[in-house]
Amino acid sequence: MSLGGKLSTWGRVSVVSGLLAMGSGGVALADEGEMSPQEATSPVLDPLAPSSLMAGPSLRETGKVGVMPGASAPPESLTPGEMSWAGQPEKSVEPVAAGFAAAPPPRPPVGTIDPMLLNREMDANLAKVEDCRIEVARARQVPPAQVPAEPLVLRWTIQPTGQTRTRDVLASAMTDQDVVSCARATMSQWRFTPPRGGSMDLEKTVSFRGL
Asked: What pTM does this model have?
């Protein structure tokens, strides 16, 4: 069988006058110059095959990452964009700072003195205050019984140097003020063994001997 020319032997392929004859007996029309016999018989290359990917341009040459055909766009979380906190004001640290400012200051360290030594020194110093009633009576040249003196509450601080600082002398209205002044002056001359670790705040009640 032939159309516009001769056909080659059965089972072979040839192109005559722009007609493509298949060895099986089927005939297909082909445009002149559109496809050569080599192109018709060569396999179609897969663009995603390893050989095709290796032969293509590298990431360094293109400057971008390829996208698989038909794949959806990358999620927004993987693309650079505006940060979620951009444009939002920063949290103020003023409330936290105000909390630290309102906290009470730390208490100074408390010193220590050997209890037996402290009691011995305290008894000697308190005995000088107990003599204030007699000292006032001598200055007035009157019997001590005529000088009213109620118990006194003494508060003082032993400083790290061993010197004392009088904080308060509490007396009732019945107590002679000269006795209170004598107690303050006597306490200012007290000396103790220097405490270890800081100052010491002490309080003691002094009762005058009955006459």
From this structure: 0.50
